[in-house]
Design goal:
- By secondary structure, this protein is of the alpha/beta class.
- 32% of the residues lie in helices and 17% in strands.
- The chain has twelve helices and eleven strands.
- The strands form two sheets. A nine-stranded mixed beta sheet has the order 3-2-4-7-1-8-11-10-9. Strands 5-6 form a two-stranded antiparallel sheet.
- Helix 6 crosses helix 9.
- The two termini are 27 Å apart.
Length: 389
């Protein structure tokens, strides 16, 4: 019986992101993977675990082969945007149990370039098969699902469209500090509200950008940390949860599955939400940030609107810096963005974020971070609590 080992993230990197017209998704996977391995200072021969989703017919097989890897532990869990937090949890468990020594998580997408080149159209629906066949005939697109949930929160708790707009304003303020963000020009609440309506109550700036890009994270067992060139970021606890298949099965539009995954992650990490220094939260739409903050326990249910309107999410002067790179609303969003949350959380804990670097009240680097991804239409959630080495 192998005793459980501590697990650390030792490599974290992005591929070229934003507007990338001359690369394939496979190339972005490879670029991110090479950079993550170089970041860690480890050779790819150490990697015996691999996780990937979203590309190819057999994602972990095809992508691993492209990267020249022959893993003995694989994961292809695909639950939308929360995929990468769930995969990180699975990888950490496998390493802790001795089933793998080093697991590489990789993602890459040319979602923007494909639309621009006419290789695909914008995705408004996940398809018409299975349970979704009962919703699609009524025009219930993906964006409409999130908009309906947001409207329910507004009705139940008095949340205002101005408060939701504040999420976009503060994400853009953080993006202004990130030279790699797609959109960095500051915006105001009035500018968010004045945009074209996409799905009531969302205007354009309530919705994420469409970009190209890739990301990679390398997790290893504790005995390999001493061989790395970077400071370890420890996986302290994680949780995952799936909620519903269709909107009609969702008991409460104002409660996301992060209410479960977050509780599990914090309990297993042995920390409280009030101890977290920085939060990276999936933000395909402004409402996702607001409701996830509530469900993770940073404020009470129904108080998310009041919580975000006081500038708390900003890197500069915010009580709880959220989506410090600008998030999916301003930095980049190439599809399933959950892995980007982990990369940014790791970089913040290692103090590598330059102008957007979060610092605690005593001017020290952050010690604890949470990354929480959401998938589908609030169907799934994965939350990971990370601690600085």
């Amino acid at each position: 019986m192998v005793s459980r080992r501590k697990v650390a993230v030792v490599g974290a990197a992005l591929s070229d992101c934003g507007r990338v017209d001359d690369a394939t998704p496979y190339a972005l996977h490879a670029q991110a993977a090479r950079r993550a391995l170089a970041d860690a200072g480890l050779d790819r021969t150490l990697v015996d675990g691999f996780a990937s989703a979203g590309l190819g017919t057999l994602a972990p097989v095809e992508v691993a082969a492209y990267l020249g890897l022959r893993p003995t532990w694989v994961d292809s869990t695909s639950v939308g945007g929360s995929t990468w937090e769930v995969m990180a949890a699975h990888a950490a468990d496998a390493i802790a149990a001795g089933h793998a020594r080093a697991v590489l998580l990789v993602y890459g997408s040319t979602a923007r370039a494909d639309v621009r080149a006419g290789r695909r159209t914008g995705t408004l629906s996940f398809g018409t098969r299975g349970p979704l066949q009962f919703e699609v005939p009524y025009g219930h697109t993906l964006i409409a699902k999130y908009a309906m949930a947001a409207r329910r929160h507004m009705i139940e708790y008095g949340t205002t469209i101005e408060q939701l707009a504040e999420v976009a304003v503060q994400a853009r303020a953080n993006a202004a500090l990130n030279p790699e963000a797609m959109y960095r020009t500051p915006v105001t609440v009035d500018e968010v509200l004045a945009g074209p309506v996409i799905a009531d109550p969302f205007t354009k700036l309530h919705c994420c950008v469409r970009s190209d890009g890739g990301a990679a994270v390398l997790l290893v067992a504790e005995e390999y940390v001493r061989d790395c060139r970077t400071s370890p970021v420890w996986v302290l606890g994680s949780g995952e949860c799936v909620s519903h298949a269709t909107m009609s099965e969702w008991p409460d539009f104002t409660v996301s599955p992060a209410a479960v995954s977050g509780r599990l992650a914090f309990e297993r990490a042995g920390v409280r939400p009030s101890e977290i220094d920085v939060a990276e939260i999936y933000d395909a739409f402004t409402y996702m940030t607001l409701v996830t903050l509530e469900d993770l326990g940073f404020c009470a249910k129904g108080e998310g609107g009041a919580f975000v309107e006081k500038g708390r999410l900003r890197v500069e002067g915010g009580e709880l810096p959220v989506n410090t790179d600008g998030g999916g609303l301003s930095a980049q969003h190439p599809g399933m963005r959950g892995l980007f949350l982990l990369v940014e959380a790791v970089r913040q804990l290692r103090g590598e974020c330059g102008q957007r670097q979060v610092r605690r009240g005593d001017d020290t680097l952050p010690r604890l971070a949470v990354a929480s991804g959401t998938g589908g239409w609030f169907c799934s959630s994965g939350t990971v609590v990370l601690g600085a080495g």
